[in-house]
Design goal:
Number of helices: 12
Shape: elongated
Low-confidence stretches: 1-7
Oligomer: single chain
Radius of gyration: 28 Å
Length: 347
């Protein structure tokens, strides 16, 4: 049943009801036109609807259109800790890939609390999110069975989950540690302390620790080979970290001590401790950190780093997810990208 034509439009953005009134047709008729079912309309009615759309500058709601076809075109990104520069950089890369493909990115900050992962998964259905890029807090917590129950694709980034049949995107952790140690050794630093945030439940940290230990084991019998030790840094053991750095210099004796930071958070803690000790990185103690940041060049003589390809990690994770959403159903992929050495005065 048609309605009377009217030139009056409700204030604000034009609606499908406004178009129907302006064209003197029903909302169902406008819907048929918008959905491309022009064969069901007479040429005169189709022209009237088209003119009304142009006159009112009507644009269909992307969300309404997507929900009608069973997709919201929303992708979730759940990060373990938004205060970590790594998380922000990955977010930016993922957002670019989503925008290019016509998706919107929804951010979930897990705040390093494993329980919040369930909230992010529940949002897949509560908010009609099409899929999730997940940077897990604690991979010891078996969450995968509940994730599978939501029936939507999930891509893991940075932190692997044993037994999970899902795409996984990460830097090549073994390669970046080996690259950092090779650089330190080439510059004469041969007494090395790896400082990491606690490894329990975080696969990337564990992989870096294990590679460090393996490389050091190979150096044991070599003349002037490197010696290494490992320290876990937390928010509560700043004083102990300072004591550990003092011990590193003391035990080095005729060797040259250096620190390898496992990520940007550890780098900040080390820089703070070194400043409190009145030292200069690159002089009393060498340094290289995993993760490039905007401030790395500004601290002391400049901090040497192994830059993770954070933008590429975010982009790749998003593209993997979008490919799944578009129907690709191949085997789960493990994608590891190389890091890049940035040499500055600290090493």
């Amino acid at each position: 049943m048609s309605t009377q034509r009217s030139g009056q439009v409700a204030p604000g953005r034009a609606t499908i009801a406004d178009v129907a009134r302006h064209a003197g047709v029903s909302k169902a008729t406008v819907s048929r036109y918008l959905n491309g079912r022009h064969q069901l309309l007479t040429p005169d009615i189709a022209e009237r609807v088209r003119d009304a759309i142009e006159t009112l500058s009507y644009r269909p709601s992307p969300m309404a259109q997507a929900l009608k076809h069973g997709r919201s075109r929303l992708i979730g990104l759940a990060v373990a800790d938004i205060t970590n520069p790594f998380s922000v950089a990955v977010l930016q890369g993922a957002e670019k890939a989503c925008q290019e493909a016509g998706y919107l990115l929804v951010l979930f900050n897990l705040g390093n609390k494993p329980g919040r992962e369930r909230d992010a998964l529940q949002a897949l259905t509560d908010y009609q999110i099409d899929g999730l890029i997940l940077n897990r807090v604690d991979t010891r917590v078996q969450l995968w069975q509940s994730a599978v129950g939501y029936g939507k694709p999930i891509v893991l980034v940075d932190r692997a989950q044993e037994g999970v049949d899902a795409d996984y995107v990460s830097v090549d952790n073994a390669a970046v540690v080996a690259q950092a140690l090779e650089h330190l050794h080439s510059r004469g630093w041969n007494e090395v302390l790896l400082v990491s945030e606690p490894c329990n439940g975080v696969s990337s940290r564990s992989a870096r620790r294990d590679t460090f230990i393996a490389v050091m084991a190979q150096q044991t019998d070599k003349p002037q080979g490197m010696r290494g030790s490992f320290w876990e840094s937390t928010t509560d053991n700043r004083e102990q970290l300072m004591q550990r750095l003092l011990a590193l210099r003391a035990q080095a004796q005729d060797r040259r001590p250096a620190v390898l930071a496992g990520n940007a958070v550890a780098t900040l803690r080390i820089a703070s401790a070194v400043q409190a000790l009145g030292w200069s990185l690159g002089r009393e103690i060498g340094f290289i950190g995993i993760d490039e940041t905007e401030w790395a060049a500004l601290i002391g003589p400049g901090l040497s780093t192994i830059a993770q390809p954070t933008d590429a990690l975010g982009r790749t994770a998003a593209r993997c997810l979008i490919e799944r959403l578009q129907g690709w159903s191949g085997a789960a992929r493990k994608i590891e990208l190389p890091g890049t050495l940035q040499v500055r005065g600290s090493s």
